[in-house]
Design a protein that fits this description.
alpha/beta, 8-stranded mixed beta sheet, 31% helix, binds zinc ion
């Protein structure tokens, strides 16, 4: 083998790592957002969500905090989440003195993450309804049957989807009394140093994009918490770049800092990263806001038909689902070196993944051949310059990968494989076929042949 120039040739160019001095193996964390579009879309359809809103809001009405209807709704949500495979806890939160005098209820459904179980993605909203109206039953179909069922259906969508972080779906009462349950719950979780990647809030969702007749208050509206400007990059990545939602007024709008405060606000003020989804820009633009006629009939009328509500619900669910998976995963960082000028040893073992260990490396050697493994040696058939490509797969989702190129100069080609050499290699072991007697006869015949050959060779030497 001839060696020319430096043995250690190239370090990966992926993700701005070009220029690393040979021998340096440090890989910077990926600044590229996760390629979530390669992951399957959630299976839950808009009709399922709309049907569940209709059923929940009429079966559990009213759901005023501290009443039997409130407790029945909480038990229903707990049972549903349990049936989906989540670990469910009905947390009773002592409320601040001077408050309602009763404990608040938070139904918390949990599934542990694989590699980062101490970090959380939270999905939250309120299931309670406003009190009052002289005994008139309030179904609260839109406020907040729609958000409650969005959370339950997200739990359904994630039931079979693995995550690195722990998922929690949280249903609060006490929202209509001034976020009193979520405030007490968030404070007690903060006191336990809870780590949260992001908290997602859902209140009055689904009369969004599309609706039959867009107006001044119409959009699939998405906000982020205070000091969470970085999340806007995630929102853009998911909604416009990946899902191809229409970016525009009365369509899908990223509306900056949260102006539609609900339970996620209780987490926002404690410094947790927050996102919020709602249909329409303001609560008051929904004509039945906090009124007895907050029913499915009103939702259908405002959306312009059930089909529009179903599509708005589905678009909201997909947006939240992909946002969570984007935040749950980091792109692998590829780090590649090539040593030698023939054969060449390729090494991608310095590659990293912020969520674990890359699940595998595959290679295209640039000469029409391929290979697999973090470290591989390849003999090129001809001298020349070749660009090899390494594909470093994500720890959790192997269909997502970072690629890195490395250029090699080969001066020594692999020894050509002659037909004779190939034949010799393939030659079968003698006398392995047939019965025991046949094999013995074969061996005796072979021995006689060899002895005869030795005698002939000795005769030739004697001349
Ligand atoms: Zn609400």
């Amino acid at each position: 083998m001839t060696r020319t120039g430096t043995g250690l040739r190239i370090v990966a160019l992926a993700l701005g790592l070009a220029g690393l001095a040979p021998g340096l193996a440090a890989a910077a964390p990926s600044s590229v957002l996760f390629d979530v579009g390669k992951l399957p879309l959630p299976a839950v359809q808009g009709k399922e969500i709309a049907d569940s809103v209709a059923s929940f809001s009429t079966t559990y009405a009213p759901r005023v905090t501290g009443t039997p209807g409130d407790e029945d709704a909480a038990q229903f949500l707990a049972a549903e989440a349990k049936a989906l495979g989540y670990e469910v806890e009905v947390v009773r939160v002592p409320l601040a003195p001077g408050g309602q005098g009763t404990a608040g209820t938070a139904v918390v459904a949990t599934r542990k993450g694989r590699t980062r179980p101490d970090d959380h993605l939270l999905f939250m909203g309120h299931y309670d309804t406003v009190a009052g109206f002289g005994g008139v039953t309030t179904e609260g179909a839109y406020d907040n049957g729609a958000g409650t069922m969005m959370i339950l259906n997200l739990a359904k969508a994630f039931a079979t989807v693995p995550t690195n972080r722990t998922l929690q779906f949280i249903f609060y009462n006490g929202e209509e009394e001034g976020l009193i349950t979520s405030e007490a719950h968030a404070q007690s979780e903060k006191a336990k140093d809870k780590k949260v990647r992001a908290a997602f809030g859902f209140d009055m969702t689904g009369i969004a994009w599309p609706v039959a007749a867009p107006d001044a208050s119409s959009c699939l509206c998405i906000w982020h918490g205070e000091d969470d400007e970085a999340l806007e990059k995630v929102q853009r990545h998911v909604n416009f770049k990946t899902l191809g939602y229409p970016d525009g007024e009365n369509l899908v709008e990223l509306r900056g800092v949260n102006a539609r405060n609900s339970d996620e606000r209780s987490w926002d003020i404690l410094g947790y990263p927050v996102m919020r989804w709602a249909g329409r820009r303001t609560a008051a633009s929904y004509p039945a806001y906090h009124m007895p006629d907050d029913t499915m009939a009103t939702i259908d009328r405002v959306a312009g038909g059930r089909t529009f509500f179903e599509q708005g619900l589905r678009n909201t669910l997909v947006s939240a689902f992909y946002s969570a998976l984007t935040l749950d995963n980091e792109m692998p960082v590829a780090q590649v070196t090539a040593t030698g000028s023939g054969p060449v040893t390729f090494d991608a073992s310095g590659s990293t993944d912020g969520d674990g260990v890359p699940s595998g490396v595959s290679w295209d050697f640039g000469d029409g051949t391929t290979g697999t493994g973090a470290m591989v040696t390849h003999a090129y058939a001809k001298p020349g310059t070749f660009t090899a490509v390494a594909r470093v797969a994500d720890s959790l989702w192997p269909q997502v990968a970072t690629t890195a190129k490395v250029t090699v100069t080969v001066t020594t080609a692999a020894a050509p494989t002659t037909p004779a050499a190939a034949k010799k290699k393939k030659k079968a072991k003698p006398c392995t076929k047939g019965s025991k007697r046949k094999r013995a006869a074969c061996r005796r015949a072979l021995a006689r042949k060899k002895a005869a050959a030795r005698r002939r060779a000795a005769a030739r030497r004697r001349g």
